[in-house]
Amino acid sequence: MKKGVEILDYVFLIRPTLFYPIWTFFLAGVWGGMRFGKGTCDFAHPVGPLWVAVGLTLVTGGIFILNQIQDVETDRVNGKLFLLANGIIPVKEAYLEAALLTVWGLALGFWIDSRIGLGFFVLFVLSGWLYNYPPTRWKNRPVMGLLINGTGGLVIYSLGWMVGGGRGFVPLRVVIYALAGVAVFLNTTLPDMEGDAETGKITFGVRYGVKKTVVWAFVLEIFAVGLAFWFRDWLLFIPGLVVLPFFLMSAAKQTMVEVLRATKFSVLALAAAVCVVFPWYLLPVFGVFFFSKWYYRKRFDFEYPSFRSS
To answer: Do 191 and 310 contact (CB within 8 A), yes or no?
Structure first.
C-alpha cells in the first residue's frame, strides 16, 4: 500500500500542470461572456464558474489519464510520465481512476445544468474516447488530432462563455482562441517526434516535419492575434502579441529550444492576462506550480515544472 508522498502518485497521474490551459481558456470564456455577452457572473450561484471549473477539472483529468494509458509505450521511449510508463501505477488502477473522475465530473455537470453536462460529455467523447481509441483513434491522424485539440479549446471556452452570461453556446469569437490553442498544440508535437515515430504514433510533427509545423504554428498565431484585434479581445490580443516574436524565432531557427520557449511562454502569457482580470487565479497558478515542483523533486529527484527551454 502506498504511503507518504507516494499516495500523491494518484493525484499527479492526472498531470495537474496540464490544467493551466484548461482553466485559462475556461476563465477567458467567462470573461468574454461578462464583457461581450453583457451577462453577469455570480460566484455564489451553483452555476457559477467555481463549480463548473471543478467538474471540468474532473472530466479533463479522466481524459488525461486515458491519453497516458494509450501512450504508455511512447512515453517509455521518450523517457517521460513515469507513473504509468514505469509501472508505478498499474493500468487497471489508472482506468478505475479515469472512470471515477469522468463519472463524477459528468454527474456534477448535469446537476449544474444540462448544457454544462452536455458540454462535458462532448468534450469527453471527442478528446477522451474518439481521440484515443479505435476505430477512430484520431491522435494518430495528424489533421484530425489538430482539429480535435482545436475543438476541445472551443468547447472549454464556450462553457466559460455560457457561465459568464454570454448568449448562445458557441460564440463566433471562440475561433481566435481555437486558433491560438492549435498554434501551441502544433509545437507540442515536435519535442517527442523520434519516440512517437518509433512507436507508430503519427502526429502532425512526425508526418510533416519540423519546418512545416513551426511555420504553420507561426501563421496560425498571426491569424489569432489579427482576429483578436478585429474582435477587440484584448485578453488574447496583448499576450498573443507578446509571444508572437517567440513563434517567429521558432519558425526562423527551427530548434527545440525556440519551440519549447514559444510553447511555455504562450501558456504563461495568457494565464497572466487572465490573472489581471481575475486576480484570485494566481492562487491555483502558483499553488499547482510549487506543489508540483515539490512532488517531483521529493518523489523522483526531478526538476519539473520548469521554465527552462532545454
So the answer is: no
